[in-house]
């Protein structure tokens, strides 16, 4: 062993420094490995949150990973996708463009950038990028997606839009005239025998035509809808109905907020005679909270003129609030409303409150199950001419059924579906004349275009 006294001082320092560096290296290896493992754990966690739709929670994880490694293409990709889902399209574009700096020929990333521009309303920029990708002969699936986006852009830039539906139906109704449950009715001091419930077959058709003129301004458009309904009874042809209604007015849409100011005119005939003519106006405010939740508030006034029942001529004021919620395969709709009708005769004036709940669920084999429930309470202002008391009614109706598409066009715009449903109705009143129950079974075909 060499005595330390004869080792030069400089060599001592070199030996000590070398030993220190070796120790630091040996210590740092597991630390670096642990840090790398921690980053991978964070990335896996962020990816799981993204795939679960928890974009708000995933974004800060990917952003922290980006700060630590700004040149990683995979981190930038998920950062951009998460920003896109958060509707932060500018940040998404910046993340995707960082990938293109390193990988300029990545069609998938260009596609994501085009989608961002589309969301920002830069249609021309989006179309240019889409067409550039198509020229590079992308995979079939990518090309199909691009053509879908280009078709959507073309449709959005059209000024005139038409849509509608036609329904043909037949039904079996066991009480077509809403005959009282008790055929013996006491009206003050008079006993009356009412007709018993009659079963009949009804054939009906419904048509709806919608028109929208866009590009008045970026936010404003004009809407119009025409609806007709015709019902023919096999035996009780005095109940035949013919209805036509027109609704039209301006529509304003800005981001998730919508406003419609619509006027309407309607005419109803029964047994080939004029029965009711009405006109009115209303306003609907709507807000799309997220892709699966829409809420709206409608205020409406209508003047009603009965051709043969002058004491029922009235002004009707209505307020309703609707909510539509989509949860996976389920769609839930709830509407709460109230109305007041001021008639020429006080005994026909009333206040009415209503709740309607609809539920539908998409089953396997393209079947859709649906259920609908309605409750309605009406309180009349003056004593009824048949009784020495004010009329008060409670109405309940429940429907359940199934529908199935039979055909769909290649662009998914037009379709033909069949449906079957069963309805039970119960109406109770303190005036016996208005107590009744009925059931109906209906079959139909609906063409949407």
How would you describe what is shown here?
By secondary structure, this protein is of the alpha+beta class. The protein is built from seven helices and 16 strands. The protein has helices spanning 9-51, 55-68, 73-85, 89-102, 107-119, 123-135, 140-157, and strands at residues 160-173, 184-187, 190-193, 200-213, 220-233, 241-254, 257-270, 273-290, 293-306, 314-327, 330-343, 350-362, 368-383, 390-408, 415-429, 436-448. The protein is elongated, with a radius of gyration of 34 Å. The strands form two sheets. Strands 1-4-5-6-7-8-9-10-11-12-13-14-15-16 form a 14-stranded antiparallel beta barrel. It has a two-stranded antiparallel ribbon with strand order 2-3. The longest helix has 43 residues, at 9-51.
Largest sheet: 14 strands, antiparallel, barrel
State the separation between the terminal residues, measured CA to CA.
99 Å
Total individual domains = 2
Total of helices: 7
The helix content is 25-40%
SSE-based structural type: alpha+beta
